[in-house]
Design brief:
There is one protein chain. The chain is α/β, with parallel strands linked by helices and 403 residues long. It has two domains: 256 residues, 3-Layer(aba) Sandwich (Aspartate Aminotransferase, domain 2); 136 residues, Aspartate Aminotransferase, domain 1 (Alpha-Beta Complex), CATH 3.90.1150.10. Helix content is 36%, strand content 15%. Strands 1-7-6-5-4-2-3 form a seven-stranded mixed sheet, sandwiched between helices. Helix 7 links the parallel strand 4 and strand 5. Helix 5 crosses helix 9 and helix 13 runs antiparallel to helix 14. The longest helix has 20 residues. The protein is globular. The structure holds pyridoxal-5'-phosphate.
């Protein structure tokens, strides 16, 4: 289990985590390599039948069969566990959505009710409607700003509360400790999609959340070339998460795990740069004609800004801005002509992206109303001055099209 009393700072852990001697060296030889290498395997060979039979009794972090992983994946999972004080272990998945799905399946059963934040990533909602509902698991959506008011929704049927903070389109920050306190009082499980902050900016299990989920596809990998998800759980729930992942046959390829582990070593410097550039650009955008509002947790007018200040240690590179008036066509004029921003799904890579988003389509408990269409930006590692000049020209196109 990752030690809450570990004195090492998170940046030091990022460098050292998951590099156990048995994964970087050869038995009986001193020293070793820096990074655990790629161990590819399906079949594992045993000395004899007795060893083959004995191996089935404990298959966690033991060479057993390729689907249970090799040291490449164990090392990455271990590193993610080390980054979350209070965690008992981490399972890896072929995408963030697979991780979310498995975590929910691990804690819910027919007849249960799930409370889902209304600002959740749309495919998370789709999983609830198209997979959980037919299984007899009901989802009730709640306002992201509900805070301690969540207690009013807690009945004997409620088994789990899912948080995503901030929401990845509209960036409301949730009152995590208040929701956790209400949940704990009734023995209800809490899960968080922590992709935006990563454990570096929000060690969620330290705040009492039971399960922390990452779309590693974003900042952990950081280079837009691997799909991956992770579920990190506390002592009470890790065995259940692991069993569910195994039952569904979930795993990641060793090559992808290796790329993700490589990405993770530089997470600290990348996130710092993403943060600084995003803040600079968001600040600039806030003063521009044609921009009604910037939605960024580090800005006072973002819902839950005070909670962000209290609970998070930083902000990453993803935020949105609301245009002042205009329509779909005027927004497309802005985005289509951008030279330094790609147009595409996902975020958290080294390259900047711009995306038209329409939150109203993905709400049911709350109503999304804004002054105009929204653009979401994932700020990459380019020089922010270039990005600002690009957006400046884009806003001029928007204003011309809006007239
Ligand atoms: C907040 C959030 N969670 C989860 C996911 C899913 O991750 P993946 O694309 O790896 O399935 C995404 C993807 O965009 C996301 O934005």
């Amino acid at each position: 289990m990752s030690d809450g009393g570990d004195a090492r700072k998170p940046l030091t852990k990022l460098v050292q985590a998951g590099r156990r001697p048995e994964w970087t060296g050869l038995p009986g030889q001193p020293g070793g390599i820096v990074s655990p290498p790629v161990w590819r395997a399906s079949t594992i060979l045993y000395d004899d039948v007795a060893h083959l039979r004995a191996a089935t009794t404990n298959t966690h972090e033991r060479l057993f069969y390729g689907r249970k992983g090799t040291p490449t994946a164990w090392s990455l999972a271990d590193a993610l566990t080390e980054m979350e004080p209070g965690a008992a272990g981490t399972m890896l998945f072929p995408s963030g959505v697979a991780a979310i799905a498995c975590a929910l399946m691990a804690v819910l059963k027919p007849g249960d009710r799930l409370l889902m934040v209304d600002s959740a990533y749309d495919p998370t909602r789709s999983f609830c409607e198209n997979m959980l509902k037919p299984l007899g698991i009901e989802t009730v959506y709640y306002d992201p700003t509900i805070g301690a008011g969540i207690a009013e929704l807690l009945t004997d049927k409620v088994r789990a509360i899912f948080l995503e903070s901030p929401g990845s389109l509209t960036f409301e920050v949730q009152d995590i400790p208040a929701i956790v306190a209400a949940a704990r009082a009734r023995d209800i499980v809490t899960l968080i999609d922590n992709t935006w902050a990563t454990p570096l900016f929000l060690p969620a299990l330290s705040l009492g959340v039971d399960i922390s989920i990452l779309a590693c596809t974003k900042y952990i990998v950081g280079h837009s070339d691997v799909m991956m998800g992770s579920v990190t759980a506390n002592e009470a729930l890790f065995a259940k998460v692991r069993q569910t992942a195994w039952l569904f046959g979930q795993m990641t390829s060793p090559d992808d795990a290796w790329l993700a582990a490589r990405g993770m070593r530089t997470l600290g410097v990348r996130l710092k740069q993403h943060q600084d550039s995003a803040l600079q650009i968001a600040q600039w955008l806030g003063g521009q004609p044609g921009v009604a509002r910037v939605l960024h947790p580090a800005f006072p007018d973002c819902p839950g800004h005070d909670l962000w200040r209290r609970d998070f240690t930083g902000s990453s590179g993803l935020f949105s801005f609301i245009l002042a008036g205009g329509d779909e066509r005027a927004r497309a004029e802005l985005i289509d002509g951008l030279a330094h921003f790609g147009i595409g799904y996902s975020w958290g890579g080294f390259e900047s992206l711009a995306l038209p988003v329409d939150p109203a389509r993905h709400r049911s408990a709350t109503r999304w109303q804004a002054e105009g269409p929204i653009v979401r930006l994932s700020i990459g590692l380019e020089d922010p001055a270039d990005l600002i000049a690009d957006l400046d020209a884009g806003l001029a196109r928007f204003r011309a099209a809006r007239r």
